[in-house]
Each structure stands twice: as C-alpha cells, then as structure tokens.
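Q: Could you predict the 3D structure of FAD-dependent oxidoreductase domain-containing protein 1?
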Amino acid sequence: RCFPVCRQDHLSVVNEDPIDLQFNHSGYLFLASEAVAHIMEENYNTQRFAGAKVSLMSPTQVKERFPWINTENVALASYGLENEGWFDPWTLLNAFKRKAISMGVIQCCGEVTGFSHTTNVLINPDGEEVHLKRIKSVKVQMPNSMEFQPVECAIVVNAAGAFSGKLAEMLGIGLGPKDSMAGLPVPVEPRKRYVYVVHCPNGPGLDTPFLIDYSGVYIRREGLGGNYITGVSPEETEEPDTSNLEVDHQFFEDKVWPKLANRAPVFENLKVTSAWAGFYDYNTFDQNGIIGNHPLITNMYFATGFSGHGLQHSPAVGRGVAELILDGEFKILDLSNFSFRRILVQEPMLERNIV
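A: Sure. Here are the predicted structure tokens for FAD-dependent oxidoreductase domain-containing protein 1:
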C-alpha cells in the first residue's frame, strides 16, 4: 500500500520548485474468498497492531459502501481508512535523483560489462576453499559508443533491478560448483507485467477504491476523466517472453476483462486506450527483497528482488543500505531478515495477500 512517506523537506532542493508527487488519497479494498478469508483476518490483526487504520467488511457492508461491486463468492474484505493511495512513480524517482545530485552525487549513464577484483582464498572449518572477492573497479560502456570507462570504487550497490542477478554472475556468483555457496545464484530475474489504461465513462469515478480481487485482478482510478488502470499477474506457467517489452492485448481480452467485468459489471463496457509493459525484479525464491552484502563479495551491497514493490520500499531500503555502509549495521529499522542468509539456509520469507 502506498502512503506519503517522503515529506517535502526531504526532497526539496534550494531554489527549485517543490515536488508534487500527485498523491491520490484512496483506500485499498482487498476482497477475499472463503478459502483465504482466514489469511485476511491474520493480516488485518498484524496491520492493526502496527497502527494501520484498516477495517474488515462483510460482503453486505461492501455492497452498501460500493453498490457497483458484485460481492458473489466474497467472504470478507479489508479496506484502508486513511493514509493510503497512489502517486506518480516517475516523479518520485526523479525527485530522489534531483536531491542526490544537489548533495554532490555525480550521475553517469552506461552499461556495466564487467568488474576488476581481487580474490582472497580462505579455508572453512570443513576444509573447503572459500574465494572472497573484492571489487576494485567497474567496467562501464558509454551509451551509443564503443568507449569503455573503468570506474574505481570502494563500494558497489547492486540496485540493477530485474538484471541484478546477471550482474552478480559477472563476479562468478551462481557459476560455482552446484552444492557450494558460489553455485547459488542471486534468485532475481525479469518478469514482464502488463498495465492497461481503460476508458469507462459510466464507471464509478471518485467512488473507486484501489480494488484488488482475490482472482488477482486489480483496478484503480486514473485521473478524473473516466480512465482507470487495471491488470493481473499471469500464472506461473504462462509467464510472457522477457526478450522485449511488447504488450499482449489478447491477454487483456482473455485474462483481465472477464474477471474485472464479473467483479464489477459496470466495466463490461470499456475501451483500452493505452497500455505498457515493464519488468519486475522478481525474486524467484520468496518474492521479497534482498538487502545487504553478499557473503562472497565483500564490498557489493544488494537492494533488489522486490518483485513489484520496490518503489514503496525504496525510502526505507535506501536508508537501510546507507546505514550498512556507513555504520556497519541497521540503525532505524532492522532489515536483517532480508539478508542473503535466508537464501543460503533455504528459509523463504513469504508474504501473503499481496498485489
């Protein structure tokens, strides 16, 4: 769920216009079937304990509050009462970038093609060799050029999103013997997701929450002109080709629209006006973020694998990684559960009822 986490005094730059993140206040409405209603109740109790203003609703209460929703086969619903909504991700990204540059960060654009590193060989208690690497420089190819630029560094933060696993492979991670630590890959890969913008002039308009059906279909309002954003994640066996970012419009016809129209018949009459595709940095292990350094690369820190929730997590994750680098430990929030350890010992940290 999105909420206004970044105050203007954190993002403002002297002599520059203030940032408008275009935050839209609107509650998230999750619908649960009988099979998963108990999970919703558990999540509700956790949220209330943490101070979130959420409410459980019966199907009758949902129908009274949102009469355009078909509550057939809905057993329970969870609705956010305050501090929820959505904002423009591109604006937030550029606000972070603008603030960083104002504080002395030098921005360079290019593609990482390799690393220069040193290797120390240690013997573990089992008598096996362990190769610890330390990055000395990053090889970067300039855009639209054959020029390569080595960038010397003391620390590298791997926030390469869907391609962070490939970046780690350049240092041999995942390429070692099968049952060794070096043979365990960073479990992050690109997964393509489609987002469709539809126009429905007779839609519910301002009365639209961010609706998430238990089928996986979601929809929210986009502006005030009868436009909405909708989509659904494909089944594991139907993951689309990631070699391009082309949109599959048949996917909307077959997988999105029927479920959407069933849950909200008002959307039986609509028109797709635009669409786009993007990559999730999908953590195949447990769909949760990976934060911290890799045990075999002493000066590479990871912030990846958020599986579609990276924007929401980014302020806290950025703060946490900075604390690890500067202080050697987390200070404000203990994010150690997101370290590589859970992957090494094969203890996934799964979250339930997520979008």
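Q: Anything worth pointing out?
A: The mean pLDDT is 92.
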